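Sequence in, structure out.
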Amino acid sequence: MADLEVVRDAGILWLTLNRPEQMGALTVDMRNQMIDELWRARGDVEVRGIVIGGKGKGFCTGADLSQPRGTAMPATPWAGLVRETMRTGSQRLLRAIWEIEKPVIASVNGTAAGLGAHLALVSDLILCAEGVRFIEVFVRRGIAIDAMGGYLLPRVMPLCKAKELAFFGDAFTAEDALALGVVNRVVPADQLETLTREWAQRLVQAPTFACGVSKRLLNRGTEVDLDTSLDDEALVQSMVMGSEDAQEGMNAFRERRPPAFKGR
């Protein structure tokens, strides 16, 4: 079986981390394959949504440190080398999920640690099994938070909570995350796949272009001033209003029937 299972089915790209014995730890090859699949999906009008999941007790426990690194680090790492290694590695994967103009669901079946936690948190919709643990494991290794964590955590939770997790590396459960509004749903483990498929089907029925540019507006919303945000809205809306789905939505409203969006 492949370490990364890739399935295209009925408008959804399913990316499943298939290393249950390694708790979903991500190899360099898996990471690069995920990036390739995401960029391929970006230009594929048949893909209406993406689901990232795992198998076994782990969703993803971060990078597989037992694997050989693409670039050997000197005893005293040069900042530029570290920056380039991170930019072309974990940051490239997470940024691809953040920027792709299609909705991404994280279906979190088990422990999500370090890069694995951020793989879930960078997704647009986060569904969790009960008892799942998120761990900002970096401090336990004596290193600073990375894998886009400094950018993500203050955007999805209060700053003081983000600092608590970064400083102490304590685990917080899916239930804790739900209370903070960090994840969307927490369900019994045997119901996670059913819920994931239900939400994936809702994405297939949604106006994909409108959802994608709405994702861009929301992601930028914490970074720009009001005038810029309003200008972005107007520009985006001028593009969306000419789409087939926008016309279908208007016609369906006038005809008092459910819309049949095609993702165009």
